[in-house]
Design a protein that fits this description.
The complex is a heterodimer of chains A (866) and B (107).
Chain A: H1 2-15, H2 17-41, H3 53-73, H4 75-104, E1 115-121, H5 127-130, H6 135-144, E2 149-163, E3 168-176, H7 180-184, E4 190-191, E5 206-209, H8 211-218, E6 228-231, E7 234-241, E8 254-257, E9 274-279, H9 285-302, H10 304-307, E10 311-316, H11 317-320, H12 326-368, H13 373-408, H14 412-415, H15 428-454, H16 458-464, H17 473-509, E11 519-525, H18 534-549, E12 554-560, E13 571-576, E14 589-595, H19 599-603, E15 607-610, E16 624-628, H20 629-635, E17 645-648, E18 656-662, E19 677-681, E20 689-696, H21 704-714, E21 721-725, H22 726-733, H23 735-769, H24 771-779, H25 784-820, H26 829-856, H27 859-865
Parallel strand pairs in A: 3-8, 5-7, 14-19, 16-18
Antiparallel strand pairs in A: 1-9, 1-10, 2-3, 2-6, 2-9, 4-7, 5-8, 6-7, 11-20, 11-21, 12-20, 13-14, 13-17, 15-18, 16-19, 17-18
Chain B: H1 6-18, H2 24-34, H3 41-53, E1 57-65, E2 71-78, H4 80-97, H5 101-104
Antiparallel strand pairs in B: 1-2
Helix pairs in contact in B: 1-2, 1-3
The chains are: A alpha+beta (866), B alpha+beta (107).
């Protein structure tokens, strides 16, 4: 049989291997199902108790077969159950695959278990300031920790400007110690890593290219090794190619040897190196921490002027490179997914309860014939387990698809910076997770109905013969609880989804404070090596502005050190003239930007009072600034800000005069809206980083190529990067929030569907049990209104209880989510009320429809049907 | 003699037509081509197995083949009892058709 399959498969595989594989799997499943059913038909359920272990085993198999047989008798019911569970399981598996990719195996390094990240600590210091190491300290760490570390390497951020085939390209680079790759346990795909001697001055013009960069810019040319490429205007020899998918750290695509200043000439007070160590064999992180504490104490004593209170912190490399914001968000997602699964289980439990009532006679009969209660229970659990396993099987392709969607919708320019994102997929661990969850779900949804069904008072069940005007109060209560749980769960998820969607939509497509349409943006970072002199940066900016303005279709050009919609910020402490000096440990901060005279016009950022920046505000003129309305209101409330002075930083900073007030903009979604901002003339403080905005008459991205060429015409070694429309820029900067919103929306939608179908199912079952009662009431003269009131009152009570619980849970969840995404999610009453109202109406509708149907039955027929 | 089911008859005839080449894949193909009907793979295996149980078919294993993942083909052959059953079935059918040709005609 298998041979036949194989033979046909190999014929098909010649035409289309992919399709053949699907065909093979499908045919194999069909065959297996057929034979499973056939053998099931030959068996009967357990009647007598098992005596030996072997017998018990065969009883279990018999139970499983009987379960398959019982299920195949009710395909519709069981398909519904399996589909419901499968959706819940798939939601969980998809989120788990993200967790798995990002937290459990993000860094594919052989040495990962032994790798640690080290940094300096200082009491009360800004975490960004201490996350790095001063070179002289690093040298001492290296020398004094030989016992616990096999090796310690240092990394330094490097913005590499690579001269490509036609245009220059900006590439994220890192300068790294010799044997950096070996320390991580990563072998170059081709060529070699850096040698010890390449870490000395004069020999450092070597690079290892990232795999993608090699493909993109050098056409995967295998002969590139040994040739030279121009980086930052200087020739570098390519010595190796990094393996595919290796972007460590932080999306790096090019690596060069790190040259430390010679001993004695190196600083202890500028902290710019990242330190990574690999523990010596047999040493733990604790050992290393103890050893490094000693080193830190020695350095404190030897160099009190720089290292007075400095300690050394150590953390596992993976932990050390995690985005601190990811954990709470993913935790919330997994929680939401678990809630969806719980609701699916509740739905299934409901169906099973309804089914249990139907099966009472069957079970009672078997009890009467001598089956033990435990056996019946086991039989029902086996049925549940078979259902779950089927659901897991159905959920796997779904989760596979969901994981792929999650992975692929992340733009490449973002996913490079998320270690492990490209590794999100269904693997053995995720499948095992699904299986475990399936078994757990079985316990949740079968245990209650099974206990209840097996506990049937058998005489009653047989005597009743399935008749009965109403069902016992205890059973009603069980189902009421389920309804309340469902409504509460759905509301909680729907509220969170609603709030997140609304906030994301508002931030992304709502008013930005300027006109983001028809705007092309591009970034230029002038390298320190060739633009050290501020005058050279001014000259470059002036020529670039001229060239970019000359592009046909471009109507205005402006630039700033940082455009709105770009990640990052540059906050500085502000001192207002005439106010007491600020508290140094907690200074008031404002966003400090430098902008060109054309900036406000190009962005259509309104000037509300005074004037904008002008060409005459140059390095020879007095320092001036335009401040945002929020800044003016905060520091000069109720007073005219024009002509007033402030300074950024300490006492040696110059006083800056306010010449104008501009509108507020959304600088970045993570920063609060309307963050106080001041704009100083670029000419008075020319930064190496510039973000350019080109107002265009037509589609802004149509001008991208011309803009790149214009920049290259000013300086052929100077790349422009992130050349795309402002809309796209905003969208990319918000990708995280968009993901949060999309996933919450999917979960909210699922929860809503599950809750509505659950409420509908329970209500209609309940009403159907009461058909006789309703018939009697109508026959005795009850009006339609009376009966509706009777059935709806109950629904109303349950809905109200569910909404109350769900509202509280939703509020708590929304707060938690908002905290996890920089308070970008606003908890607003309107969204809350609309969601609650919509859910209440649908829940009541789900109760109303069956009630109405019961009323439509002729009372005479209702009485006769029993 | 056991009566032949309609599907069993079709399977037996297909095996007979294929002579030496009668293993599951061509049998199924033959039925698809001549009787214009798609047979579920499982149904065919069940029928072959049942016919063998009834003694109407016999089978032998061929040589292991690489394109089958090293597995051998199972070749079927109609037994003497199978032939007798087919003949009986044919006689019965022809008796039933007798005199109805003008009414039902040729397709």
């Amino acid at each position: 049989m298998l041979g036949d399959l194989h033979e046909e498969h190999s014929e098909r595989a010649e035409l289309s291997p992919g399709r053949a594989r699907v065909w093979y799997a499908w045919e194999a499943i069909r065959l297996a199902a057929r034979f499973a059913l056939r053998s099931a038909k030959k068996t009967q359920p357990a009647v007598g108790p098992p005596r030996t272990r072997g017998e018990r085993m065969s009883h279990m198999l018999r139970d499983a077969r009987f379960a398959v047989r019982a299920m195949s008798k009710r395909p519709g019911f069981n398909a519904l159950v399996v589909a419901t569970l499968a959706v819940g399981l798939a939601a969980n598996a998809a989120i788990f695959s993200v967790l798995n990719g990002l937290f459990l195996r993000p860094l594919p390094f052989t040495n990962l278990p032994r790798l640690v990240r080290l940094w300096e600590t200082a009491p009360g210091a800004d975490p960004y300031d201490v996350s790095n190491v001063a070179p002289a300290n690093f040298r001492d760490w290296q020398a004094q920790s030989a016992g616990v570390f096999e090796r310690m390497v240092a990394l330094e951020w490097w913005d590499a400007n690579l001269r490509g085939q036609e245009l220059a390209e900006r590439v994220q680079g890192y300068r790294v110690s010799a044997r950096f790759f070996e320390t991580l346990g990563v072998a170059p795909e081709a060529g070699r890593s850096f040698l010890e001697e390449e870490g000395r001055p004069g020999a450092e013009r070597r690079v290892v290219l990232g795999h993608d960069l090699w493909q993109r810019s050098f056409g995967s040319d295998p002969g590139i090794i040994g040739r030279t490429v121009t980086v930052d205007g200087e020739a570098h020899v390519v010595v190796g190619i990094a393996p595919r998918g290796f972007h460590f750290p932080d999306g790096a695509e090019i690596w060069a040897p790190l040259v430390l200043p010679p001993a004695g000439a190196d600083a202890r007070d500028t902290h710019y190196l990242t330190a990574i160590g690999s523990l010596a064999r047999g040493r733990s992180i604790d050992d290393a921490a103890k050893a490094m504490a000693l080193v830190a104490r020695r350095l404190q004593k030897d160099h009190p002027e720089t290292n007075a209170a400095r300690g050394i912190a150590i953390e596992g490399l993976q932990r050390g490179y995690e985005d601190p914001g990811l954990r709470p968000i993913l935790g919330l997602w997994q929680l939401a997914a678990a809630l969806v699964l719980l609701m699916a289980c509740v739905n299934v439990a409901n169906l099973m309860l309804a089914r249990g009532a139907e099966r009472r006679r069957e079970l009672a009969l078997r009890l009467a014939l001598g089956a033990e209660r435990g056996q019946i229970l086991r039989q029902l659990l086996t049925e549940g387990l078979v259902t779950s396993l089927l659901a897991v099987a159905v959920s796997l392709p779904l989760s596979f698809w969901a994981a792929r969607e999650l992975r692929q919708h992340m733009p490449a320019e973002v996913s490079r910076f998320l270690p492990g994102w490209d590794g999100i997929r269904m693997d053995g661990r995720t499948v095992a997770f699904s299986l475990a969850l399936g078994v757990l779900a079985t316990l949740v949804f079968t245990l209650v109905p099974a206990l209840r069904a097996s506990g049937t008072a058998l005489v009653d069940a047989l005597a009743e013969g399935g008749r009965g005007a109403t069902v016992g109060a205890g059973r009603q209560r069980g189902r009421s609880v389920l309804v309340v749980v469902q409504i509460a769960g759905a509301l909680a998820l729907a509220v969170v989804a609603g709030l997140t969607l609304r906030s994301a939509h508002e931030l992304m497509l709502g008013p930005q404070g300027y006109d983001p349409d028809h705007l092309l943006t591009l970034q230029i970072t002038l390298p320190e090596s060739r633009y050290r002199d501020p005058q050279s940066r001014r000259t470059f900016a002036r020529s670039a502005a001229e060239r970019l303005s000359a592009i046909p279709g471009v109507t205005a050009v402006g630039f700033a050190n940082l455009l709105p919609g770009q990640p990052g910020g540059s906050s500085r402490p502000i001192q207002v003239e005439g106010e007491p000096a600020f508290d140094r440990s907690n200074p008031p901060l404002v966003e400090s930007r430098t902008a060109s005279p054309g900036f406000f016009g190009a962005l259509r950022l309104p000037i509300l009072a005074g004037r904008g920046l002008e060409a005459s505000d140059d390095e020879t003129a007095r320092p001036v600034a335009v401040v945002s309305r929020s800044l003016a209101q905060r520091y000069w409330p109720g007073r005219d800000p024009l002509g007033r002075r402030f300074r950024l930083g300490g006492e040696d900073a110059p006083w800056i005069t306010v010449v104008g007030v501009s509108g507020d903009v959304i600088q970045h979604w993570a920063a609060h809206r309307n963050s106080p901002t001041c704009y100083r003339p670029f000419a008075q403080d020319p930064s190496p980083d510039t973000g350019w905005a080109l107002r265009t008459a037509v589609d802004p991205e149509a001008a991208s190529a011309a803009a790149r060429l214009a920049v290259a015409a000013v300086d052929p070694y100077q790349p422009a990067y992130r050349v795309w429309s402002m809309r796209r820029s905003i969208s990319i900067s918000m990708i995280g929030l968009q993901y949060v919103a999309a996933i919450m929306a999917v979960f909210g939608g699922l929860a809503l569907v599950l809750a509505i179908s659950g409420v509908y199912g329970v209500m209609s079952y309940r009403v159907s049990l009461r058909t006789l009662e309703i018939g009697v009431r109508v026959a005795l003269g009850a009006s339609t209104g009376d009966v509706l009131q009777l059935t709806m009152a109950q629904a109303l009570r349950l809905t109200a209880a569910g909404l109350l619980l769900g509202g509280a849970a939703g509020l708590a969840a929304a707060r938690a989510l908002s905290a996890a995404v920089m308070h970008a999610v606003a908890v607003d009453g309107a969204t809350f009320a609309v969601t609650t109202g919509a859910l209440a109406v649908t829940a009541l509708l789900a109760a109303y429809v069956p009630a109405r149907r019961a009323l439509a039955v002729d009372p005479a027929q209702a009485l006769r049907s029993q | 003699m056991a009566n032949l089911g309609e599907f069993e008859e079709v399977v037996l005839l297909a095996v007979l037509r294929l002579e030496e080449e009668a293993y599951a894949i061509p049998v199924r193909e033959e039925i698809r081509r001549r009787a214009r009907r798609r047979v579920a793979r499982g149904a065919l295996y069940t029928a072959l197995e049942r016919l063998e149980d009834k003694g109407l078919l016999s089978s032998r294993m061929g040589e292991p083949r690489p394109e089958r993942g090293g597995r051998a083909r199972r070749y079927f052959k109609v037994t003497a009892r199978g032939l007798a059953a087919l003949r009986a079935s044919r006689c019965a059918r022809l008796e039933m058709w007798e005199g109805l040709e003008t009414l039902l005609g040729k397709p």
